[in-house]
Amino acid sequence: xxxxxxxxxxxxxxxxxxxxxxxxxxxxxxxxxxxxxxxxxxxxxxxxxxxxxxxxxxxxxxxxxxxxxxxxxxxxxxxxxxxxxxxxxxxxxxxxxxxxxxxxxxxxxxxxxxxxxxxxxxxxxxxxxxxxxxxxxxxxxxxxxxxxxxxxxxxxxxxxxxxxxxxxxxxxxxxxxxxxxxxxxxxxxxxxxxxxxxxxxxxxxxxxxxxxxxxxxxxxxxxxxxxxxxxxxxxxxxxxxxxxxxxxxxxxxxxxxxxxxxxxxxxxxxxxxxxxxxxxxxxxxxxxxxxxxxxxxxxxxxxxxxxxxxxxxxxxxxxxxxxxxxxxxxxxxxxxxxxxxxxxxxxxxxxxxxxxxxxxxxxxxxxxxxxxxxxxxxxxxxxxxxxxxxxxxxxxxxxxxxxxxxxxxxxxxxxxxxxxxxxxxxxxxxxxx
Length: 433
What we know:
Number of helices: 8
Radius of gyration: 22 Å
Strand order of the largest sheet: 12-13-14-15-17-16-18
Order of helices and strands: HEEEEEEEEEHEHHEHHEEHEHEEEEEEE
Distance between the termini: 79 Å
Shape: globular
């Protein structure tokens, strides 16, 4: 009898271990709206039948199920499961069912957005490299945030060859970080790449692994509809959160080399993306009280021909600034990345148009986990410089507060113990009819 019980216990333990090894990455949620969300897992083997069980009840009673997905080696056994017809402003709990077995370690939860102008807050930052015990990302998730926005450099693999396996491995290693894994279970991820995670340092459209990078992003990362007509090309996209519209531009995969002369023939966005971007700006500024442009490099920067920021693409920057002025877009702000520092410009001394008036409100907070520091761009209205020589892990926080006649944006940057390092408010008058 004892021997049978021992065998049964061993069998149960082996079965648990076998199930545990099936999930290599995940869960991660993203592409959230007021009625849908996407859940991502990576499973060890191809040919596995997967679906997601979800419910408004934390114990997953009265649950529903997604469609069944079968893993395939063609996309490295990642599955992206769309949850549809969800209710707005509702938290859903979920777990993965693999070959008919419900796996407890696959649990997570996600909250849908509102379909109205409801105040909200989110965290953001860039640069995950050092694997610190407590990163800015891990600290950010301690807060009650609706989602986390990564503005670039999710990893620092600097891949300079056309090898899809290297890009997949880089994403897998990044997503398996402890802080990323924790975040994945708690809040949705929105992510746009910069240079180190797209290709090599200061990379552009000549990067050897350009197509492989695009394919790996599409396989591994939950994202909104990608608007490029090129297969595995640029990853620019947009989405709406509680009546605030976000525009994410891809400033790597279609950019010219930094060394090219700065004139009308030099572009960071490429013709197709720039056309899309202008249309997004014009239409969203008339529809939503606030528009947030996510630029992975600083827009505010003094002109310099070989610069990796918008300073080296000043002709195209002026085209954008003129477009904003000519269409009276007064409800636009920028969140930028690339730099390892904390700064903002309230809209003074960064008007790059041919017209009089203020520039754009731009904010930046980094690094999430990288001991290097760098103050890029400027002039900035305020800059925070860490006392420590090695730098400081931080995160940015944005609160969007709606009222009848204005929308108030509160930006703060915090260290890993949630001490406030910088803070500013910007008010946008509600001019929508």
